[in-house]
From TrEMBL:
<dbReference type="GO" id="GO:0016787">
    <property type="term" value="F:hydrolase activity"/>
</dbReference>
<feature type="region of interest" description="Disordered">
    <location>
        <begin position="405"/>
        <end position="435"/>
    </location>
</feature>
<dbReference type="Pfam" id="PF17146">
    <property type="entry name" value="PIN_6"/>
</dbReference>
<comment type="similarity">
    <text>Belongs to the NOB1 family.</text>
</comment>
<dbReference type="GO" id="GO:0004521">
    <property type="term" value="F:RNA endonuclease activity"/>
</dbReference>
<dbReference type="GO" id="GO:0005737">
    <property type="term" value="C:cytoplasm"/>
</dbReference>
<feature type="domain" description="Nin one binding (NOB1) Zn-ribbon-like">
    <location>
        <begin position="289"/>
        <end position="360"/>
    </location>
</feature>
<keyword id="KW-0862">Zinc</keyword>
<dbReference type="Pfam" id="PF08772">
    <property type="entry name" value="Zn_ribbon_NOB1"/>
</dbReference>
<keyword id="KW-0479">Metal-binding</keyword>
<dbReference type="InterPro" id="IPR036283">
    <property type="entry name" value="NOB1_Zf-like_sf"/>
</dbReference>
<feature type="binding site">
    <location>
        <position position="302"/>
    </location>
    <ligand>
        <name>Zn(2+)</name>
    </ligand>
</feature>
<dbReference type="GO" id="GO:0030490">
    <property type="term" value="P:maturation of SSU-rRNA"/>
</dbReference>
<feature type="binding site">
    <location>
        <position position="314"/>
    </location>
    <ligand>
        <name>Zn(2+)</name>
    </ligand>
</feature>
<dbReference type="GO" id="GO:0030688">
    <property type="term" value="C:preribosome, small subunit precursor"/>
</dbReference>
<feature type="compositionally biased region" description="Polar residues">
    <location>
        <begin position="174"/>
        <end position="204"/>
    </location>
</feature>
<feature type="region of interest" description="Disordered">
    <location>
        <begin position="143"/>
        <end position="256"/>
    </location>
</feature>
Length: 435
């Protein structure tokens, strides 16, 4: 059976990130048939050292190709539906479109993909041509006895996971154990086409790895010393595990061979890639990524999600009610946000009304400060410009004085303060007269 860590990749599309950081090693690239990128990505790299390295080492390997406008339109429309479109750059869209185009070309159509976010099944059945080919038979086999194959896959994965922690001797034993235990969960999983397809239902996917995990651990308490500890010998395995985070827990969930894949570090691009059911690979280890986690802004009042993390006001209702929440996207096309269970909105400062605006305060000399409450307020616009300018400060400026000497205030995160900020205006200040 193909495990994802060894499965050959026919075409790999790469972003500027791995090129700049020089992430790939020769051993990893052995799996890749052809490396693709778009001309826009190459144009993006302006740093002299990176450029020269790119020209000497990467350009001979890379195939530069611009996607067709039709593909760009398809991925553009998809990303509009997921809400990622505003944060995707033209380069991002082109990379995604190229991956889509290659997938369609090499895989004989878009049957493996999803055309709408949250689509339960893949677009179409496995085409006959793919079925008849050698690989197709492997895939068919996996499809036929879906549950079994998947259970086996998971067990193997669980195995692979453990390998990093356990010693090599325990591996073979565990291998036997997992194969015995895989037969147990088989009856619970129906071997239907949908189950084996890349969108199996959540519970079956999660329950399967448990038995293999529990059986081996009980049988090998003797060498538990080496297990679970990060030592210099297994450090890089743990690092690669953490870069791919949760994903590597189930790399073999998807039995399809990898025709076209995308390696990028951009979250919005990763999210759309996963939701389209395109293959997403880690830029460090080229392992398949199944789940990505990030943060997103959510309005506490109207629940609108915003991907632009620089926003301070809700784009729909306009209130300063945006909150940073964690979110995850997985290869089943699901996009989830994770909220705190007992979250309580902070109601401080709501007892008394805001002070009335007074004339003459615009000069800043007045007693009253002008509170920023909405995005289109001229004070806010002015403040955004001021904060932006301050960020561009030259670090080598000989005339620079730290803020503590100039009396210049620094707000947290370098963003304009909204309302009273963290201060509670209804609490009497210590030390007598209010300002
Ligand atoms: Zn809102």
């Amino acid at each position: 059976m193909l495990t994802d860590d060894q499965a050959p990749i026919d075409a790999l599309v790469i972003d500027a990130g791995p090129l700049i950081r020089n992430d790939f090693t020769a051993s990893i690239l052995n799996r890749v048939g052809k490396l693709y990128s778009t001309p826009a990505v190459i144009a993006e790299i302006r740093d002299a050292a990176t450029r020269s390295r790119l020209e000497t080492t990467w350009l001979p390997l890379l195939t530069l190709r611009a996607p067709k406008p039709g593909s760009v339109k398809i991925v553009g429309d998809f990303s509009k539906k997921t809400g990622d479109f505003p944060v995707l750059s033209v380069t991002d869209l082109q990379l995604l479109a190229l991956t889509y185009e290659l997938e369609v070309e090499l895989n004989g159509g878009d049957w493996r993909l999803k055309s709408v976010p949250g689509q339960k099944k893949i677009n179409g059945p496995v085409p006959k041509a793919v079925k008849d080919s050698g690989e197709g038979k492997v895939m068919e086999g996996l499809v036929r006895d879906g549950g079994k194959a998947e259970g086996g896959g998971d067990a193997k994965t669980a195995d692979a996971e453990e390998t990093s922690a356990a010693s090599a001797g325990a591996l073979s034993q565990k291998f036997c154990n997992t194969h015995i235990s895989t037969d147990n969960p088989t009856p619970t999983v129906t071997g239907s086409m949908e189950q084996a397809s890349p969108s199996p239902s959540e519970p079956t996917a999660n329950e399967d790895p448990d038995p293999p995990f529990s059986t081996p651990t009980s049988s090998e308490d003797s060498d538990s010393d080496s297990e679970g500890w990060i030592t210099p010998s297994n450090l890089h395995k743990h690092q690669s595990k953490s870069t791919t985070s949760t994903p590597s827990t189930n790399p073999t969930k998807n039995p399809w061979p990898i025709r076209a894949a995308l390696a990028t570090t951009d979250f919005a691009l990763q999210s759309v890639t996963l939701q389209m059911n395109l293959h997403l690979l880690s830029t460090k280890t080229l392992q398949r990524i199944h789940t990505i986690r990030s943060h997103i802004l959510r309005c506490h009042a109207c629940f609108k999600l915003t991907r632009d993390m620089a926003k301070q006001f809700c784009p729909v209702c306009g209130g300063p009610t945006l909150q940073r929440v964690s979110c995850s996207a997985d290869s089943k096309g699901a996009f989830n946000i994770h909220l705190k269970r007992n979250y309580q909105w902070n109601n401080r400062g709501n007892v008394f009304s805001l002070p009335k605006p007074t004339h003459g305060s615009a000069s800043g000399k007045g007693d009253r400060e002008v509170l920023i409450l909405r995005e289109d307020q001229k004070e806010y616009e002015r403040e955004v410009v001021r904060v932006g300018r301050r960020k561009e400060r030259d670090l080598l400026d000989p005339d620079y004085l730290p803020g503590i000497l100039t009396g210049e205030r620094r707000d947290a995160g370098g963003r304009p303060r909204i309302g009273y900020g963290k201060r509670n205006p209804n609490v009497a200040r210590k030390g007598g007269k209010k300002k």
